[in-house]
Amino acid sequence: MKKIAYLVPVFPVASETFITTEIKALQQQGYDVQLICLERSSQPCLQGDEAILEQSLSVEEVPLNQLFSTTLWLIFKTFFSTLLIAKKRASFISGLRFLFAQQGVRPRSLFLQALKIIHLVQQTGCQHIHAHFGWAPAGNGIVAARLSGLRISFTCHGSDVYKTPQDLQIKLQNADFVVAVCKRMYEQFRQLAPNTAIVHLPCGVDTQLFSAGEERSGQSSEAQANSAADLRFLFLGRLSETKGVDYLIQSLAQLPEEKRVVIDIAGDGPMSQELRALTDQHQLGRWLNFIGRVERRWVTEELKHYHAVVLPFCKTAEGIMDTGPLTLKEAMACQVPIVTTDIMADGEILDGASAWVCRHNDAEDLAATLSQLIDQLMQSNSESSVIQSDSVHPSLQRRIDLAYRKVTNDFDALLLARRLGQWFDAEAPASERKEHHYGV
Questions:
Q1: Distance separating alpha carbons of residues 171 and 250, to the nearest angstrom
Q2: What are phi and psi of 108, to 5 degrees?
Q3: Of 174, 153, 190, which Cα lies nearest the Cα of 100?
Q4: What's the whole-model pTM score?
Q5: Which residues of 54-79 are buried (b: 16+ CB within 10 A; e: fewer)?
Q6: Are strands 386-387 and 216-217 parallel, antiparallel or unpaired?
Q7: What are the chain's domains?
Q8: Which residue, 10, 112, 397, 411, shows the most beta carbons closer than 10 Å to its own?
Q9: Which region, left, alpha or beta, applies to residue 361 given φ > 0 means left and ψ of -120 to 50 means alpha?
Q10: pLDDT tens-digit readout, 419-437
């Protein structure tokens, strides 16, 4: 098994647990993974990621005086190895061409960053570079890999494709393989780079860490759920435009008071103040609790105790939307009923048989969908406040079971890491491999 350098923009970042989940799943498969960040964040490390943080390296912390030996090695490689070995010569030349073809960054800056990455890769003995996000990590990684003769791959996640792409097509064309996290992205990449291997691998979830307990109950499990107000729903995610929390607030305002549930809003982001103001405008402070950013430990312990998770993903005016949020899969693994929109319920992750689905960007339809789920939950809780398999409405239990089966079969982090590892270990050029699509 090869030692893999994982190149990321910033570390640690609380909202990017999909990266450390993937790293730990690869490590469980026996891979040695070295995380290298372009910048080190001042954010606290999430519980469970301490070992990754302790061993991580930062490109910005590499002093210039340590690059002397790396520069000498590159000179030797240029004038000797690349002259004798055609494959290495082609790799080096393609790296130089890519360096000067970039539009979003100056060649001198890109070369210096790549030189630092080469230094760290040599220092740690890495044999493959894998970057996350198609921004600077992919560009820097491609130059570093091509100049040093290593293989390079990267994963795109959504905002680097649909919101602020940076020289995306040429990066796709210069990688050995590229991972697309959703089918829509996979099809788009195949058109942009027909000669590059495009692999469809969604972000995985640790189904051992995120799991249902012996019973699922509301926050006040000892209290009888006599009214909708006794039920507790959860929104979990960044408070940004694509999450649809504004539609959730509007939908709750449309429900009659006797149908309103208490919803905890867990997360922070650029829309935090706007959403709080909208809550005050509709006088919903009694039903909406903004609890701020929560730690992973809180999610693993508390998510399974909610009666439902509401994730009303929407599409922005520019057509931007989420590609495969981890919170959705975590709720599926915890066997919690899910309310979401047709953006995520197209069959790739969920569908109408495994979740309560409404139209995106439609507060009225979301209100109707919430009302339907509340009716079923109240029917289930008419005799007991605890949601157990023998007291759950049949339709409710059927959807929970289908969602759980889907996440364990298609989104288990260990399963996906095994697939990704096969690509890391491949010696043949990625373009020669035939099976690029992992259908889910």
A1: 41
A2: -65, -45
A3: 174
A4: 0.91
A5: eebbbbeebeeeebeebeeebeebbe
A6: antiparallel
A7: 3-204+413-428 (3.40.50.2000), 216-410 (3.40.50.2000)
A8: 411
A9: left
A10: 999 999 987 554 444 445 4
